[in-house]
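REQUEST
  id: r-88c1
  op: predict_structure
  target: Flavin-dependent oxidoreductase
  payload:
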Amino acid sequence: MISKLPKWAADLTEKASSIMTDMKVLETVYVSPNIKKIRFRGDLSRMNFQIGYASVIRVSDTEFRNYSVAYHNVYEGILDIIFHIHGNGVGSLYIDALKSEDELRISIPRGKKMYNGTIQRQFIFGDETSLGLACSILPILRKNKHQYQFYFELDDENHNVPELLGLENYTVFSKKNTFRNQQWISELPVFNTDEWDNANFILTGNVKSVQTFRKTLKERSRGNISSQGYWLEGKKGL
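RESPONSE
  id: r-88c1
  status: 200
  body:
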């Protein structure tokens, strides 16, 4: 979905029952000062949840933002989204202000599928904006008995967030431009063994980090690669 529309078009989009669903905030919790987990309740019967899909929330009169669903239960009509409250952007300000009993509309998930269940080894890379995807794929990886590894580049205050969210088999790296350096990436443990040659690589998060990681993988002919940049410094509404 386009991230910015004229107000009249945004009003029509939000009212479209074929796209948007009424939801209510059940509860909110700050996993860290800038990671907020919100549970919503509504009718999920029309929603198709796939790894890599995202739902849209209107965050101002004219702007929308995409968010990955971290957990869903269609029978109970609940879904969780993990938000990165970053800076004073319109999306962050809107999400930060949401509280229990607030009502809003959330779109049916759509996007690009990233999970390939036929591949035994699964490697997932991302940052704070990727935590929802990581939480959504973990039960699938466990159920299908994959070998899997998560790599996260996180701000220092978020280093313990993966543990608090119940993630496992993860390594946290400091966000010090390390994943903008191809040479540094090529020396990571995942490149020091042939076990991951045919893995399914899922790369999300910061555009520059995703592009650099993808380029390094492709130069080494590593596995099946799915990538989606979620944000880029200086660019709104990616």
